[in-house]
Amino acid sequence: MKRLKNTFLVAVLGLALVSLAGCDAAEQSARDLASKAEQAAQELAQEKLKESVNALNEQVDKVQEKAETWMGQPPAEAKPDEADKPAAQEATPAVIET
Q1: Which residues neighbour 4 within 8 Å (Cβ) at sequence distance 6 or greater?
Q2: Which of 5, 12, 17, 51 has a CA positioned 20 to 30 A from the CA of residue 74?
Q3: Up-side HSE of residue 21: CA atoms within 13 Å toward CB?
Q4: Whole-angstrom Cα distance, residue 26 to residue 19?
Q5: Confidence check: pLDDT of 78 > 60
Q6: Total number of domains constituting the chain
Q7: What is the reported pTM?
Q8: Mean pLDDT highest for which of 4-13, 69-78, 85-94?
Q9: Is 64 a member of any domain?
Q10: pLDDT, tens digit, for every residue of 47-77?
Protein backbone atom coordinates (compact mmCIF):
# COMPACT_ATOMS: atom_id res chain seq x y z
CA MET A 1 0.00 0.00 0.00
CA LYS A 2 2.83 2.36 0.88
CA ARG A 3 4.51 1.51 -2.41
CA LEU A 4 1.29 2.35 -4.28
CA LYS A 5 1.13 5.72 -2.51
CA ASN A 6 4.73 6.46 -3.45
CA THR A 7 4.10 5.48 -7.07
CA PHE A 8 0.96 7.60 -7.14
CA LEU A 9 2.85 10.55 -5.57
CA VAL A 10 5.67 10.24 -8.10
CA ALA A 11 3.13 10.11 -10.93
CA VAL A 12 1.34 13.21 -9.63
CA LEU A 13 4.62 15.09 -9.24
CA GLY A 14 5.65 13.99 -12.74
CA LEU A 15 2.38 15.25 -14.19
CA ALA A 16 2.78 18.52 -12.30
CA LEU A 17 6.30 18.91 -13.69
CA VAL A 18 5.14 18.16 -17.22
CA SER A 19 2.24 20.59 -16.91
CA LEU A 20 4.57 23.32 -15.57
CA ALA A 21 6.94 22.71 -18.47
CA GLY A 22 3.94 22.91 -20.78
CA CYS A 23 2.89 26.18 -19.14
CA ASP A 24 6.37 27.63 -19.64
CA ALA A 25 6.31 26.60 -23.27
CA ALA A 26 2.85 28.10 -23.71
CA GLU A 27 3.95 31.31 -22.02
CA GLN A 28 7.03 31.57 -24.25
CA SER A 29 4.88 30.89 -27.29
CA ALA A 30 2.45 33.62 -26.23
CA ARG A 31 5.33 36.06 -25.76
CA ASP A 32 6.69 35.23 -29.21
CA LEU A 33 3.26 35.67 -30.76
CA ALA A 34 2.76 39.00 -28.98
CA SER A 35 6.17 40.18 -30.15
CA LYS A 36 5.40 39.24 -33.77
CA ALA A 37 2.01 40.93 -33.57
CA GLU A 38 3.59 44.10 -32.20
CA GLN A 39 6.20 44.09 -34.96
CA ALA A 40 3.53 43.60 -37.63
CA ALA A 41 1.46 46.43 -36.15
CA GLN A 42 4.46 48.76 -36.20
CA GLU A 43 5.23 47.92 -39.83
CA LEU A 44 1.60 48.50 -40.80
CA ALA A 45 1.52 51.81 -38.94
CA GLN A 46 4.74 52.95 -40.64
CA GLU A 47 3.38 51.99 -44.05
CA LYS A 48 0.11 53.84 -43.46
CA LEU A 49 1.97 56.89 -42.15
CA LYS A 50 4.18 56.93 -45.24
CA GLU A 51 1.11 56.72 -47.49
CA SER A 52 -0.54 59.55 -45.57
CA VAL A 53 2.54 61.76 -45.82
CA ASN A 54 2.81 61.11 -49.55
CA ALA A 55 -0.87 61.97 -50.06
CA LEU A 56 -0.47 65.14 -48.00
CA ASN A 57 2.60 66.15 -50.02
CA GLU A 58 0.67 65.68 -53.25
CA GLN A 59 -2.15 67.88 -51.95
CA VAL A 60 0.32 70.56 -50.84
CA ASP A 61 1.97 70.49 -54.28
CA LYS A 62 -1.42 70.95 -55.98
CA VAL A 63 -2.31 73.85 -53.70
CA GLN A 64 1.05 75.51 -54.35
CA GLU A 65 0.59 75.17 -58.11
CA LYS A 66 -2.89 76.68 -57.91
CA ALA A 67 -1.67 79.53 -55.72
CA GLU A 68 1.20 80.29 -58.11
CA THR A 69 -1.18 80.23 -61.07
CA TRP A 70 -3.59 82.50 -59.22
CA MET A 71 -0.76 84.93 -58.44
CA GLY A 72 0.28 84.93 -62.09
CA GLN A 73 3.53 83.07 -61.58
CA PRO A 74 4.50 80.05 -63.63
CA PRO A 75 4.51 76.74 -61.78
CA ALA A 76 7.68 75.89 -59.84
CA GLU A 77 8.83 73.41 -62.50
CA ALA A 78 8.88 76.12 -65.17
CA LYS A 79 10.89 78.60 -63.06
CA PRO A 80 14.56 78.95 -64.04
CA ASP A 81 17.01 78.10 -61.31
CA GLU A 82 19.59 80.61 -60.09
CA ALA A 83 22.30 78.44 -61.67
CA ASP A 84 20.65 78.80 -65.10
CA LYS A 85 21.00 82.62 -65.15
CA PRO A 86 23.89 83.98 -67.21
CA ALA A 87 26.91 85.11 -65.22
CA ALA A 88 26.91 88.50 -67.02
CA GLN A 89 23.71 89.56 -65.28
CA GLU A 90 25.19 88.81 -61.89
CA ALA A 91 28.48 90.56 -62.70
CA THR A 92 26.97 93.93 -63.65
CA PRO A 93 26.44 96.03 -60.54
CA ALA A 94 23.40 98.21 -60.25
CA VAL A 95 24.82 101.76 -60.21
CA ILE A 96 22.77 104.90 -59.86
CA GLU A 97 24.49 107.91 -61.39
CA THR A 98 23.62 111.37 -60.26
Answers
A1: none
A2: 51
A3: 6
A4: 10
A5: no
A6: 1
A7: 0.47
A8: 4-13
A9: yes
A10: 999 999 999 999 999 999 998 888 887 666 6
